[in-house]
Every structure is written in C-alpha cells, then in structure tokens.
Amino acid sequence: METNNHEQLEKILNSISQDAKPDKNFEQMLKVKLRERFHTQYETPRIPFFQRIWRFKTQITATFVLVIFSSTTIYAYGNDNVTNGSILYPLKISTEKVEETFATTPEAKSNYYKKMAKRRMRELAVLERKGVIDEKTIKETDNLIVRASTIALAVPEEEIDEMIEVKTVKKTRNPAPTRIELPMAAPSSTPIQLMKEIPTTTTLSIREENTAEKVETKVETKAETKVETELETEVTTRKKTKREKAMEEISEVRAEFDDKFYKRTKQNIREEKIEDKKDEIRDTSR
Amino acid sequence: MPNFEEFNKYYEEHMPQVYGYVYMRTNRNKALAEDIVSDIFLKAIEKFEQYNGEKGAFKSWIFQITKNYLIDYFRSNKNKSSSSIDDLANELRDPNDTKQAAQEEIEKEIIKEAIETLPDNKKELILLRYFSGYSYEEIAEITKDNENNIRVVIHRTLQDLKRKLEPIKYQSE
Asked: Which residues of chain A fall short of a pLDDT of 50?
C-alpha cells in the first residue's frame, strides 16, 4: 500500500513536471535574444575608458588651451602689475585693442582713452615702486590724454542731469567823454565840464574753472582818461553738457598725470631745465 | 573572452530545469515563468565573464541567480493568487473527460496546491527533484547541503503530499 501510494505520487509528480516543460518556440526565441545580448556585451570590442577619452584628444586639447589662454588673458588684462617689459604685457595690450574696436562713438572713444590713460598711470605707479621710470609708458599716457581731449571735442553737447555754476561779471564803466563825443564849442565859449555818465556794460562770461575753454572778452578803454569801473558778479546755474563732462574728466586725468609722472621723463626734466635757464637769462638781462 | 557557443551549451542543458523550477514557483503561471526565465538568462550573460567553471558547476551558479531573482521578485510582488481546490477541479473538468481522466486531473491539482503550501526549503527540494529533474547529488551541489539530509527531507515531504491525496481516494472509492 505504502509502495503503491509512493508510486502513485511519483507518477503524479512526473505528470505535473511534464506541464512544467518550456515551450519549444519560447526556447528558440530566447536563444536568439541571448545571442544578440551576448554579441552586444562581449563581441563588440569594448574600448577601455582612457582609450575612449583619447579619441577626443584634439577637442580636449583645444578646450584646455582655450581655457588656459582665456584665464591668462583675463589675468593680464585686469592686473596692474603686468607692465611694459612683462611677458604678458603684449597680451594685455592686444586685449585693450579689441576693447577699442567696440568704442564707436566719440563719447565711448573718449572714455576709452581716458580709461587707458588711467591704466597706464597705475602701471607707472607700480614701476615707480620698483624704482623704474618707464619713459615709453609715460609718453604713451601723454598721447592717450591728448587723444581723449581731442576726441572729446566731438562729443555732442547734449545736456545731462548735472548742474554747473556760471559766473557772469558785469562791469559798470563811467568814462569821460572822448573828443569825438564832445559837442563842438565856439572858441570863446566857456569850457564845458562834461561829466556825462555813459554807462557801458561789458559782460564777461567766465566759465567754471578747469575747463579747456575760456571765453574772455577784453574790455578796451576808449577814453584816454582814467576810467573808474565797478565789477558785479552774477552766478547762475545751468545743466552741464556731455562734452563739458568729458573735458572735465580728462582735465582731471591730465592734472594727475602732470603732477605725478610728466616731470619724470629725462627729456621733460631736460626741457624743464632749459626753460629754467632761459628764464634765468631773461631775468639777468633785465 | 567568453564565447557564445560555450554559453549556449549551458543554456540548452539547464534551461528546462530552470524553467520547471520557476514555473512551479510562480504558481504555474506560464507567461510569468517565461518572462522570469528570460530575465534570469540575460542576467547570466551579464555575469558570464565572472563565472569560473573551476569554482563550481554551472547549474549551481545559474540556480543561485534564479533564487536571488525570485527572492527579489516576490519581495516586490507580494500578491499571490490562490484558488481553492474545488475551483481548480471545476476549471479542469472537461465534460468529455472520462471519470478516470477527471480523477487524475484533480489529483494533479491537489498535489500542485499542496506543493505551493510547502515551506520554502522543502518546496525547493521537491521542485529541484521532480520539476528540474536533478539527482540528489546535483541537488546537494546546488543547495550546498548534505546528500543524505536531502534524501530524508524529500522523503518526508513526499509523505506529507501523499496524505493530501487520501481524502480524494476515499471519495473515488
């Protein structure tokens, strides 16, 4: 009985196991799928990581060079310690030249030259601390200031939101009458004392100091007699123009340059000495 | 460098066993069993480079992959469908079946269900023995267990399964 039961169970289990056999179609389809996967994984040559990277060596090198170049350019451009004679100085100058191409209007150009002049002055200060007087840079700075001033004249006279004071000087004059003005008198007639007040007003317009432009009107005394004058100053305000502002800024730069560096060059020192000598001779001859 | 011919040889030799095992483990769901077996062998290809014939037989290696896969699968798919024996019996009963054939079908379903309710370790041994067709020695190699232990466990499990058939036998008689 026991054996029968056991045999029966074995029979049932074997029968069930027949159901648990895979389908032939499934077997074949899976084989195909496995072959494809195998090929992708093993038979396609697997390139090592560094070899894959090496394929892009040109692009990587170009990127690296570009990054280094850009970093160096930015460093050179913004650093006042990069002065004439430094290895990076030509790169700095070249970058500045590129910047110049973007200055298309007179205002932009004037600002550009002014900016460059200031840069050169900072470089001169660095060199001075090292005990070096760089005449080339001094000359260049001078040129830049001149160019800035020249181009500033082309800046439009558009008003800006800045006021300036204008001093107007009124001159009141009480001259004695001239011979022409005197009425013709008979010889026997008594001399006429003429003390007519002929008011003559001459206006002197004096622009604010530190501008390159000064307008002066000379007052000529017509009468030979002594003229008593009174001056009256009137102060008014008006809006500044772009040109005036540009000229003002350049004048500041000029003043600073003249004060600090202009006299440093040997030529300028020599010229100054010659001028001093001339003045001395002039004074002596008097 | 692995070659496909070698892998194919292993595939043809062991795929039916793996399928049988997975088929029973998935509650006799053919479609699911096919999907799982496909995934198992694709995974085997991925790891085939690491397979070292000297360390162990391919069947041990592929069954380890199979067991791990099924553990992960059941962990993420905890729903188990179960049907009562009566439902199964009704499903399988074909009006054209003879009484004998019907009886056999019912017995088969009872045993299948009974196998499903076995504890995992016993179920595994029964499946490897009767559905994968491995010998005791091969099962010992796969499960890394003692062959005698395996024989004893399988024998006792069969006793349990036999007892499941008793009520049916009495009915038919």
From this structure: 1, 181-183, 185-226
Q: What is the pLDDT of residue A82?
A: 94
pLDDT at residue A79 in the model: 93
Q: Does B92 touch chain A (CB under 8 A)?
A: no
Partners of A22 on chain B (C-beta within 8 Å) are 15-16, 19, 34, 37
Q: Does B131 touch chain A (CB under 8 A)?
A: yes
Quote the pLDDT of residue B90. Answer: 47
- Surface of B (34-73) touching A: CB under 8 A: 34, 37-38, 41-42, 45-46, 48-49
Tell me, what CATH number does B65's domain have?
1.10.1740.10
Consecutive H or E run containing A238: strand A228-241
Query: What distance in Å separates residue A1's CA from the closest CA in chain B?
Result: 12
Tokens matching residue A233:
């100053």
* DSSP category for residue A43: I
Number of inter-chain CB pairs under 8 A, A vs B: 85
Please check whether residues B120 and B159 belong to one and the same domain: yes
> What is the pTM assigned to this prediction?
0.43
Q: How far apart are CA B123 and CA B21, in angstroms?
A: 10
Say whether both B12 and B62 belong to one domain.
Answer: yes
Range of the domain at B51: 4-76
- Extract the tokens encoding A167: 């001093």
Pairwise CA distance, residues B41 & A199, whole Å: 120
- B5 at interface of A, judged by CB pairs closer than 8 A: no
Hey, what are A12's tokens? Answer: 């049932």
Does residue B170 carry a pLDDT above 50? Answer: no
In a domain, B90, yes or no: no
Q: Is the pLDDT of residue B1 over 80?
A: no
CB contact under 8 A, B108 and A17: no
Mutate to test the interface with B, among A3, A32, A37, A42 (most CBs of B within 10 A): A42
| Helices assigned H by DSSP within B48-128 | 58-76, 85-92, 99-116, 120-126
| Complex ipTM tops 0.95 | no
3-state secondary structure of A108: helix
Structure tokens at B165: 């058939």
Number of domains in chain B: 2
In a domain, B158, yes or no: yes
| Cross-strand pairs, A232 | A170
